[in-house]
Structures are given as structure tokens and as C-alpha cells.
Write a structure and sequence with these properties.
Strand content: under 5%
Order of helices and strands: HEEHHHHHHHHHHHHHH
Number of helices: 15
Number of strands: 2
Distance between the termini: 44 Å
């Protein structure tokens, strides 16, 4: 009996052992290797040569790194607000029209882009915008826009990448917002209607305040996904034109695999992105704790 009791105590830990080993080996191990190699001159083939903080001091004088960092921050500015607003508006629309034919169709269609990989989305949109497709050219021509120049112009290419990312992830965040909307009791809206509150008043006074935890979670997810658009950028623009769409991940990839002599420097670039994500994660946890304590 004592042996069975002991097995039952460790049984939950046995279930999570496989995924724990995978996380330790492939996630934590990769982070430790990246941190270590960032202090070396490493070209993948020869053994690493320790150089101290030379790679990090090099970042300050690297114009390409500064541009990649700026592009990464611009993607955050473009994607996060649009993703948050479009997701919650679509969720409210689907919730309000869930019993209508239009709402049912939209509910089925909205999630399809998310099911496609970033690589597929990048290739498809590249063909749409650069493939000389007459219906696409006619549609953009109504607004006086030439589709082939959207990705070929350094001033518009990054914004186009951001819009494609918003389109791709909208269904995912809509589902998250829908789960938050369904957790709000209907009695709150009924009481507000009795007091004479309209739809806008209910949205700003009931829906948004009661969805604070969901909005904070979605904000964190939006930021982290906006920081990892490598497959999309690689297949859509390849980082061009003139590095206009090269973010930190794309720049690290270029350093490591296209110019193998800079693998150690690529690790330093990756670590900068890791620090940014870590800071955002800590901020999100703090916001969630504060919101939980208020509830």
C-alpha cells in the first residue's frame, strides 16, 4: 500500500516528464547556447573563439542592425493596434450576428487564414501582388494603386507585410475575444438596457471592462507574434527592398546562414530580441496579477 501511495504522489510528474525534457533540451538548451556563443566569434564550421562583449559593442555601430531593430518596432506599431481593434470588433460582430446567416458564414471563414502557415500566406500574397493578375490589378486600380509597387517600394513594403500579418492572425484573436465575450453574463446587458443604455454605452461600460484579462492576454500574444514574422517576410519580400522589411529575426538568419562567418554575431542579435520578449512577458504577468487582485 505504501508503494502505491508513493507512485500516486509522483504520477502527475511522470505525465509531464516527456514535455519537460523536450523544453529543457530544445528551448532552455538553445537559449543557453545562444547566450554563450554570443560572446564568441563563430562561423558554424570552426570552434568558437571567445571575444568577450565585442559582438554587443558591434551592435551599436551596425547600421543594418539599427534598421532591423527599427523595422521590428515599426511592425509592432503597425500590427498590434490593428490586430487588437480588428479582432475585438470582429468578435463583437460575430457574437451579435451568431444566429444570422451572415454571422454563421463569417464564423466559418474568419479562421481559415490562421490555419495556413506563414510560408504559404507569404507565397500566396506575393503572387497576388506581383503576379500580374488582372482582377487584382483592377481592384487596386480603383484606388489608384499599382499592386506590383506595394512590395517593390521601400516606403510601403513593411506596411504591406504588417497588413498581411493582421489578416493572417485575425481569426485566432477573434476566437480568443469570443471566449471572453461569452463569459460575460447576459444579465449585465439586460440591466443596462433597462437603464436606457445603448449598444455603444454597453460596449464601453460593460464589454471592455469585463474583458480586461482577455485584452491583456491578447496584447501579449499580439506583441510576441508581431516579433516573429520570419516565414512571412522571407517568402513575401525576402527582407527587401533595400532591407526595408528586414526585422531582427530576418537579420539574424541572414548573418548566420547567408554569411556563416557571423554566426556568433547573429546570436547577439537574437539575444536582443530575447530580452525584448522577456521584458514584455514580465510586464504582462504584472498586469495580469494586478487585474486578478482587483477582481
Amino acid at each position: 500500500m505504501k508503494r502505491k501511495t508513493g507512485i500516486k504522489k509522483i504520477e502527475p510528474y511522470l505525465y509531464i516528464t516527456p514535455i519537460t525534457l523536450i523544453l529543457v533540451l530544445f528551448v532552455v538548451g538553445s537559449v543557453l547556447i545562444s547566450i554563450t556563443l554570443a560572446f564568441t566569434k563563430y562561423n558554424i564550421i570552426t570552434p568558437p573563439d571567445f571575444r568577450g562583449i565585442d559582438n554587443y559593442t558591434r551592435l551599436l555601430d551596425d547600421s543594418k542592425f539599427i534598421k532591423a531593430l527599427g523595422n521590428t518596432l515599426k511592425l509592432l506599431i503597425y500590427i498590434v493596434p490593428l490586430q487588437m481593434v480588428s479582432g475585438i470588433l470582429m468578435a463583437v460582430f460575430l457574437q451579435a450576428n451568431r444566429k444570422r446567416v451572415l454571422g454563421k458564414i463569417a464564423n466559418c471563414v474568419i479562421f481559415i487564414p490562421f490555419l495556413c502557415s506563414n510560408a504559404v500566406v507569404g507565397v500566396v500574397w506575393r503572387q497576388l501582388l506581383n503576379g500580374k493578375i488582372p482582377p487584382v490589378e483592377w481592384l487596386f486600380g480603383l484606388f489608384g494603386v499599382e499592386p506590383s509597387m506595394l512590395l517593390g517600394d521601400a516606403e510601403t513594403a513593411l506596411f504591406v507585410v504588417a497588413m498581411v500579418a493582421v489578416w493572417k492572425w485575425m481569426g485566432y484573436y477573434t476566437v480568443i475575444y469570443l471566449s471572453g465575450l461569452m463569459s460575460i453574463p447576459e444579465t449585465c446587458y439586460e440591466a443596462a438596457k433597462v437603464d436606457g443604455a445603448g449598444k455603444l454605452r454597453c460596449f464601453f461600460s460593460i464589454t471592455l471592462p469585463m474583458m480586461k484579462p482577455t485584452i491583456i492576454l491578447t496584447l501579449f500574444l499580439c506583441v510576441t507574434t508581431a516579433l516573429r514574422n520570419f516565414e512571412l517576410i522571407f517568402n513575401l519580400t525576402g527582407g527587401g527592398p533595400n532591407n526595408a522589411t528586414t526585422d531582427l529575426v530576418m537579420y539574424a538568419y541572414t548573418l548566420c546562414f547567408r554569411s556563416g562567418s557571423s554566426a556568433g554575431y547573429a546570436m547577439a542579435v537574437s539575444n536582443v530580441l530575447f530580452v525584448i520578449v522577456l521584458i514584455i512577458g514580465l510586464m504582462q504577468q504584472r498586469l495580469l496579477r494586478r487585474e486578478t487582485s482587483e477582481l
